Each structure stands twice: as structure tokens, then as C-alpha cells.
């Protein structure tokens, strides 16, 4: 009898323990259902009240009243508002940004099953394709690496010094959803971009018509590389890589998007990814400076327009964020067809 009583009480307490644990566990209703996630790569100081980096204008517009949500393995806290818009600073470079994105997407605190992602930040642009202050939507994300490189003098004279390495075909490029890209361009077509005298003065050092124009909204390939490359030779190589991969012309150089896309491809899919970059520098010097002088400019020789560009990014991107959230019943199950008038 004693043994049966012990067995009964042991079973009873085990059942109660399991019940309590289950009651305390999070349910799907506790998860934050994310409609749009905004990923920035760095912030200069605080999220508000000082010089703005990539996240501050997003924070001021969407998260000023939000509390930080810490996620193990992420670079910075996540912020979410009551409308289902969330955002965070992921960290710079392929490894840091993608590690943060993976930690966040795998966190049980969030439901990303129907989320749209805006990968947002500053970037460089070739002077024959863009200018300071431009805001660019990506049609393709291409990895600058994942191949073989050699010094020019060690190969055939005048020939390219890069070749792709086999085995990376599925991760070296991502074509972003063309229908979503069309929506981005449609929603932002009437946005008026900010500019500055300093940026305009700097543009005039370049002979290219594209470099000398006012800021505009552009579209093309965003090239991801941890190497902050400079000079006409490496810019030409970036364009060569996009042609090898049958992507659109290279218009933006950045350090994170293709790596983040790989994480999202494994966790949520790529159909709802958007890459939005603002050009704050050219990827090469003007005719009167060397590549090294451009890489390490003397005082007064840097490009202006940084403050205006980080604001331009949010002016453009918020049109898409607001439209998706305000029309969630249409966007929840996928990108709707854009009816062109």
C-alpha cells in the first residue's frame, strides 16, 4: 500500500509540475506578430537626440515610445510599436549583421511568418551610376566575395582578376521580388529628397553627368562585401561580377544585405525582402585625387550630405512601411499585384 501511495503522489506532483510549466510557457498569442521589420546596421550614438546614423530617424518615427526587447545573440535590442512595426541595429559587416538577424528571427518573442523586411543603411555608389544623396531600391543582392581573386600582374594582362567558385551558386546572388520592387518604386515616386550645398559642391568635382545631378531614387544591384573597396579598378570588377551573374547594373556598394538575405532564405524566405540604401560616398576618387587620397581624404575633402541622406532613406522607406501596415488585410498573405494606371 505504501508503494502505491508513493507512486500516486509522485505522479500527481509530476502532472502538476508539467501543468504549471505549460501554463507559464509562452503561447502563440504572446508572440509579437511582426508586419514590417526594419534592419539598420549602425547608429552613431544614441537612438535619439544626437547625430543621426542609420537607425535614428526610423526610431524617431516608429519606436520613440517603444521599450527595448533584448534578444540573446543580437547586437542591439529590438523595438516594436503597437502597429506591428519592429526594428533593430544589427551591426556592421556580413557576420555581425547576419548573426543578429538569425538570433532575432529564431527568437520565440516574435512571429515572422508574414513579415516584410527592409534592410536599410548608407552605402557607396559609382559616379557613372549615382550620386550623393541618392536612395536606391535593390533589384538584386550580389555577394562581392565567394570566388577567387589574384593580383593583376599574376594573371593575364588586362583580364579580370576574379572568378566565381563552384558551390556557391545558391547564395552568391538573390533576385528580390520584382512585384514588391515595383510597389516600392510606385510608393516612393513622389518623395522629395533632401540635399545640401556641401554635397552639391562635392559632386561638381566629378565629370560624370550622373554624379553631378541632384539626388534621385534609383534601382539596381546592391553589392555586398566586407571589403570597403575603392577605385575605378575594383568598381569595374563589381560591375563585371554582376554581369557574370546576369544581375542588373551595380549601383550600390554595401556590407550586409546578401548575408542577411541568406539568413532570411533559411528562416522566413526571400519574397518579402527589400534592400534600401542611401549613397553617402562615391566608390572612387575624382580625376584630381588618387584612390588612396579618396580613401583617406584630407580635412575639408570629404563628401557632404550624410545627414540629408540618412533622412532621405526614411522619407522613402516609410512610404512602403506605412502602406503595408495601413493595408495589412491586403498585404498579409503576400505582395498584391500592382495595377498600373
Task: Briefly summarize what is shown.
The protein is an alpha/beta fold. 35% of the residues lie in helices and 20% in strands.
Task: Walk me through this protein's architecture.
The chain has 341 residues and is of the alpha/beta class. Helix content is 35%, strand content 20%. The protein has helices spanning 2-24, 56-63, 94-106, 178-188, 197-203, 209-212, 232-244, 257-267, 291-295, 306-326, 328-331; strands spanning 32-33, 36-40, 78-80, 85-89, 110-111, 116-125, 135-143, 147-149, 162-164, 173-175, 217-224, 250-254, 273-282. Helix 3 (94-106) packs parallel to helix 8 (257-267) and helix 4 crosses helix 10.
Features:
two-stranded parallel sheet; alpha/beta; about 350 residues; Pur_nuclsid_perm; 11 helices; Rossmann fold; globular; disordered N terminus; single chain
Topology diagram in text:
Elements (H helix, E strand, L loop, with lengths): L1 H23 L7 E2 L2 E5 L15 H8 L14 E3 L4 E5 L4 H13 L3 E2 L4 E10 L9 E9 L3 E3 L12 E3 L8 E3 L2 H11 L8 H7 L5 H4 L4 E8 L7 H13 L5 E5 L2 H11 L5 E10 L8 H5 L10 H21 L1 H4 L10
Parallel strand pairs: 1-5, 2-4, 2-6, 6-13, 7-11, 11-12
Antiparallel strand pairs: 3-4, 7-10, 7-13, 8-9
Amino acid at each position: 500500500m505504501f508503494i502505491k501511495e508513493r507512486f500516486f503522489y509522485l505522479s500527481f506532483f509530476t502532472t502538476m509540475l508539467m501543468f504549471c510549466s505549460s501554463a507559464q510557457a509562452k503561447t502563440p498569442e504572446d508572440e509579437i506578430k511582426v508586419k514590417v521589420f526594419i534592419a539598420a546596421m549602425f547608429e552613431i550614438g544614441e537612438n535619439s537626440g544626437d547625430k543621426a546614423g542609420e537607425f535614428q530617424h526610423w526610431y524617431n518615427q516608429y519606436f520613440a515610445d517603444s521599450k527595448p526587447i533584448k534578444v540573446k545573440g543580437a547586437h542591439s535590442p529590438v523595438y516594436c510599436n503597437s502597429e506591428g512595426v519592429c526594428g533593430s541595429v544589427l551591426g556592421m559587416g556580413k557576420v555581425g549583421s547576419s548573426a543578429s538577424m538569425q538570433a532575432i528571427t529564431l527568437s520565440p518573442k516574435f512571429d515572422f511568418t508574414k513579415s516584410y523586411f527592409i534592410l536599410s543603411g548608407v552605402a557607396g555608389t559609382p559616379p557613372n551610376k549615382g550620386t550623393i544623396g541618392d536612395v536606391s531600391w535593390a533589384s538584386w543582392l550580389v555577394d562581392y566575395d565567394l570566388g577567387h581573386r589574384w593580383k593583376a600582374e599574376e594573371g593575364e594582362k588586362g583580364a579580370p582578376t576574379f572568378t566565381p567558385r563552384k558551390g556557391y551558386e545558391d547564395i552568391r546572388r538573390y533576385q528580390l521580388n520584382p512585384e514588391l520592387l515595383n510597389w516600392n518604386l510606385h510608393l516612393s515616386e513622389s518623395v522629395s529628397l533632401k540635399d545640401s550645398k556641401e554635397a552639391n559642391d562635392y559632386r561638381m568635382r566629378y565629370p560624370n553627368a550622373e554624379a553631378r545631378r541632384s539626388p534621385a531614387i534609383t534601382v539596381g544591384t546592391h553589392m555586398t562585401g566586407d571589403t570597403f573597396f575603392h577605385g575605378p579598378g575594383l568598381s569595374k570588377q563589381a560591375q563585371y561580377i554582376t554581369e557574370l551573374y546576369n544581375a542588373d547594373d551595380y549601383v550600390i556598394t554595401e556590407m550586409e544585405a546578401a548575408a542577411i538575405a541568406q539568413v532570411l532564405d533559411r528562416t522566413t524566405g526571400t519574397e518579402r525582402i527589400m534592400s534600401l540604401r542611401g549613397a553617402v560616398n562615391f566608390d572612387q576618387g575624382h580625376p584630381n585625387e588618387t584612390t588612396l587620397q579618396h580613401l583617406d581624404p584630407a580635412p575639408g575633402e570629404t563628401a557632404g550630405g550624410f545627414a540629408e541622406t540618412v533622412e532621405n532613406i526614411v522619407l522613402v522607406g516609410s512610404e512602403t512601411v506605412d502602406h503595408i501596415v495601413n493595408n495589412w488585410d491586403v498585404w498579409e498573405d503576400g505582395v498584391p499585384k500592382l495595377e498600373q494606371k
